[in-house]
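Researcher: Next entry in the queue.
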Amino acid sequence: MNIQFSKYQGTGNDFVIIDNRLGDINLSEAQIAFLCNRKKGIGADGLMLLGVAEGFDFKMTYYNADGTEGSMCGNGGRCLTQYAFDKGIVKDTYLFIAIDGPHEATIDNKGWVHLKMADVNDVEKGADFLVTNTGSPHYIEFVTDINNVDVFTKGKAIRYNERFSKEGINVNFVEKQTDKLFVRTYERGVENETLSCGTGVTAAALLANINNLGEHNVNIETLGGNLAVSFNNKGDNKFDNIWLKGPGTFVFNGTISIQ
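Model: Structure for this entry, 259 residues:
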């Protein structure tokens, strides 16, 4: 079977995207894992299908690099919005449906995609960490020397510890800098550090300002580039009007044969 695909990336978080608006693409876990494999396939942190859903401009279906269906992916949602635009779905404001519910998105005149994230209404406060869900579950640890953190080793140990091993969790290390946050993430499903994680930087921005009520716009640096997160802190660990902002960049189109 020959599959036509596109490759997109959002601050280094890269994705295989396939147009499935006809509903004729049915991939197994093994096939998805092959497509995402960097040695034998195309190579990506995840795979997305652009689908249709009544009442929405499109449907987002996201798969982890290991082939399993994933939770919400913020960078993926921004890339899929740009892909929809490039495919001729042109809107001032997009409304699409993902696994965690409906999302709005816009594309600004600088080419950044603004993606509205789900409200956050719960935060767990541990002794030296915070946990919340921004469409995907995230563990946040604040550090003072992020360049010297062994993200793979520490992140894997937390992701596979007794508490989190069954469902998995994304592990973020965050350094508060003068005018921004620097965030590095170990992602479940990829099982490695990625260059950027949209739901992770969203969680980091919220929790870095957990005691600061009101409207905020936080600049974020990742290994793959710059993002921004705006939101309203309502107090009592509740946040709304959350927007993840950054580029969704086309890389290339191709056709690949799969068994």
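Model: The chain has four helices and 17 strands.
Researcher: Noted, moving on.
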